[in-house]
Specification:
Elements (H helix, E strand, L loop, with lengths): L3 H20 L6 E8 L2 E6 L2 H6 L1 E15 L5 E10 L3 E4 L7 E2 L3 E10 L6 E2 L10 E9 L2 E11 L11 E15 L2
Antiparallel strand pairs: 1-3, 2-11, 3-10, 4-9, 4-11, 5-6, 5-11, 7-10, 8-9
Length: 181
């Protein structure tokens, strides 16, 4: 069983890395900010309903992407990529096998953008331990996008014959922007 403090430290390190990567965005003096609430994903699989119907964490992660450009209004592309810091959904009990990341589905919720950007959600997104684009867009000037992510475990792949217990993973988010003057 991994201590809860270890999970908290990994979350803080991931957020720190995100802040560093946002500060390294290639552009002419851009200012970008990514705000995340709910980057640790935790599931308790303990009932027959969970095995048959899966478990959902509705709107568990809330994200806000805010980008301010100090230059002219050049069009540019942006994308938010997500990966798991683990290769599997980890089980807290060493007796239980880990679950494949493919058992976890991410669904966008309530995407709201301002008029300076458009967005496209990757409907074929599959969580893995390498970055994959979850949402992307094209913007001109300052923009803001707010949305949530719902996590569904066992909805597409039933959990029948899997061990009951506590499963978790920690997500890492990467924001990328590129100006094309």
């Amino acid at each position: 069983m991994k201590p809860k403090n270890f999970i908290c430290i990994r979350i803080l390190l991931s957020i720190g890395l995100i802040i560093l990567s946002v500060s390294n965005i290639r552009a002419q003096n851009p200012v970008g900010k990514l705000t995340i609430q709910g980057g640790a994903i935790q599931f308790y699989v303990i009932s027959l309903n969970h095995y048959n119907d899966g478990v959902s964490l509705s709107n568990w992660t809330r994200l806000k992407i805010k980008y301010t450009s100090i230059t002219e209004n050049y069009p540019f592309d942006w994308r938010l990529s997500i990966k798991s810091l683990e290769t599997h959904l980890m089980a807290d009990d060493p007796e239980n096998p880990d679950l494949p990341l493919s058992n976890l589905v991410l669904v966008d919720e309530n995407v709201v953008e301002n008029s300076n950007t458009t967005h496209t959600v990757n409907t074929s997104f599959e969580l893995s331990n390498t970055y994959e684009t979850f949402i992307s867009g094209t913007a001109t000037g300052d923009f803001e996008v707010n949305f949530g992510i719902t996590y569904e475990l066992g909805k597409n792949t039933p959990l029948i014959n899997k061990s009951w217990g506590y499963y978790y993973t920690i997500l890492d988010f990467e924001l990328w922007c590129s100006h094309t003057p």
